[in-house]
Every structure is written in C-alpha cells, then in structure tokens.
Write a structure and sequence with these properties.
Elements: E1 7-11, E2 30-31, E3 34-35, H1 36-39, H2 42-47, H3 49-63, H4 70-85, E4 90-94, H5 100-107, E5 115-117, E6 120-127, E7 133-135, E8 154-158, H6 168-176, E9 180-184, H7 196-202, E10 206-211, E11 223-226, H8 229-237
Parallel strand pairs: 1-4, 1-9, 4-5, 9-10, 10-11
Antiparallel strand pairs: 2-3, 6-7, 6-8
This protein binds ligand BV8.
Keywords: Cytoplasm, Metal-binding, NAD, Transferase, Zinc
Enzyme class: transferase
Subcellular location: Cytoplasm
C-alpha cells in the first residue's frame, strides 16, 4: 500500500451491521409495510410528518445503544496512522447517518470532522425556519422548539431521496485526487454515492471493494475482499 498517497473510503450500512444497526437490505428495505423511499422523502414528511419523525426517533434511539465495531476502529486507526505511514490523506465518506465512525475516531483522540456524512446524521436536527443545525439526541415527534429561533420547525438533518447529498464538491475533489478508492459495506444501490467508483475507475484510480458479497458496482473494482467488515477491514488496514 505504501506507493499510494491519498485514499478515499466510502462506507455504507454494512460497516455498522455488526454493531446491531440493520442494513436497508436486511429488512429488505421494508420498514413496517413502508418502503424506505416512502418514509425517507420530503413528500412523505409533508404527507405524514409523524410517521417520518417516529421512523427517525426509533432509529436515533437505536444508534445511541450501539457501539463502534472492529471495522470502525480499524478505519479510525488508518485515519490516524496513514499520514505518517503513507504520507497522504485518508478521506472518509459515509452514507450512514449513525455516529459510529465519529465515536471510533473520538476514542483514538482524533478531532471532530474527520467523517463526511454525505446523507446527514441522526444526532443532528435541522430547523426549516432559521436553517440552524443543532446536535440532537432526543425525539422530534413532539416538535420541540428550535434552540436558535424557537420555531417548531425541526426535521431530522438527513438527506432524503430526491434531496442533494451534502459536501458533494469536497467528495468529488477528494475522489479526483485519490490514488485509491475503497468501498466498504455498501450495495452500490443509491446514487450519487454508487457512481463514485465508476468515476474513480475512469480516472485510472485503483479501486477496492470490502463487502460481504459483490455489490451492484462490482465490475468497477480492481480488487475485492468479501466477508464481514469486522474481519476484512482490520486485515486490510494492518
Ligand atoms: C433507490 C435508488 C435507485 N435511488 C437513488 O439513487 C436516488 C435517485 C437517483 C438519483 N440519481 C440516480 C441515478 C440512477 C438511478 C436513481 C437515481 N438518489 C437520490 O434520491 C439522492 C439521495 C440519496 C440519499 C437518500 N438517503 C439515504 N440515507 C439517508 C436516509 C436514511 O438513512 O433514512 S440513502 C440510504 O440508502 C442507502 C443504502 O445503501 P447501503 O448503505 O449500501 O445499504 P444496503 O442495505 O443497500 O447494503 C448493505 C451492504 O452491506 C453488505 N453487508 C451487510 N452486512 C455486512 C457486514 N457485516 N460486513 C460487510 N458488508 C456487509 C451487504 O452485502 C450489502 O452489500 C445508503 O445510501 C443510505 O444512506 N438524491 C438525489 O439524487 O438528488 C437529486 C438532486 C440533484 C440535484 C439537486 C437536488 C437533488
């Protein structure tokens, strides 16, 4: 790995599966007779806000009971050690809205902000009146007032289907400047995240998939190691 300098890592639900957070596929994408697309959309929120808020309150509570696993910890070690080892940058982009990557990084004394949450975060609330984002651990179902403006207009700070993911310019630049693109625990079913590996491959960047099984984008990967993230990720990092 040592001739490589800059590494971009993209993770998905599979990296948190062994922490007890169900993947979209485990539940078949179905949640209480609702397709995820039917609860994770601005239209669903307009149509039935209580259903959507309960969906995220349930998941937000679940995430706070979970702990980072060996895959999260190995990725945090790489973020800490790679600059000295390989001399380059590790950019960690996650589709996950849990904070397990952040907690693994914090446990190693790495500062905040080392994780790009392109689809948002459970532990953040977004005020649609004043646009403020506030760290949030409690429920939103009782529409509590926004700590900044007092309006009762808080929604989960989550990127829903049909909404533009966060920090796309930063992510695209990191992919363009990468020597290696690694995808961990993602099915490659949701865009634009699922398109990053093709962009990397077309730029001649090395690409590696670490996943339980081949993903939908498997044809774009030069290499693949299939197995549980808690095993294949530490083995790859060491
Ligand atoms: C369904 C899909 C076809 N639809 C889309 O992609 C849509 C539409 C679309 C856009 N471009 C396209 C191009 C083609 C086709 C469709 C589209 N995309 C969007 O709507 C995006 C927004 C998408 C983001 C939606 N929000 C999420 N999450 C937050 C919510 C929430 O979490 O509730 S997406 C959500 O689903 C995705 C789930 O995928 P995975 O994480 O990969 O999970 P999955 O369960 O599928 O797979 C798990 C994998 O892990 C593996 N695994 C399991 N256990 C383990 C284990 N133990 N170890 C290792 N691996 C393991 C399994 O084998 C499996 O491979 C993640 O991205 C996740 O974040 N927005 C947008 O395009 O905006 C436009 C726009 C443009 C300009 C201006 C304004 C707007």
């Amino acid at each position: 790995m040592d001739q490589l300098r800059n590494i971009v890592i993209l993770t998905g639900a599979g990296v948190s599966a062994e922490s007890g957070i169900g993947t979209f596929r485990d539940s078949g994408g179905l949640w209480e007779e609702h397709r995820v697309e039917d609860v994770a959309t601005p239209e669903a929120f307009a149509r039935d806000p209580d259903l959507v808020l309960r969906f995220y309150d349930m998941r937000r509570a679940g995430v706070q009971k979970a702990e980072p696993n060996a895959a999260h910890r190995a990725i945090a070690r790489l973020q800490r050690d790679w600059p000295a080892r390989g001399g380059g940058r590790v950019t960690l982009v996650t589709q996950n809205v849990d904070d397990l990557h952040d907690r693994a990084a914090r446990a190693l004394g790495l500062g905040e902000g080392g994780v790009i949450h392109m689809h948002g975060e459970h532990l953040s609330a977004w005020c649609t009146a004043c646009d403020a984002r506030t760290p949030w651990h409690a429920d939103l179902i009782d529409s509590p007032p926004c700590p900044s403006c007092g309006a009762r207009a808080l929604r989960p700070d989550i990127v829903w289907f049909g909404e533009m993911p966060y920090r796309m310019e930063e992510i695209i630049r990191a992919v363009e400047e990468a020597d290696l693109f690694v995808s961990i625990g993602t099915s490659g079913a949701v865009y634009p995240a699922a398109g990053f590996v093709r962009s990397a491959a077309e730029l001649g960047i090395a690409t590696l998939e670490l996943n339980l099984e081949p993903s939908q984008g498997t044809q774009w990967f030069d290499g693949a190691r299939h197995g549980p993230a808690s095993e294949v990720v530490p083995a790859w990092v060491e």
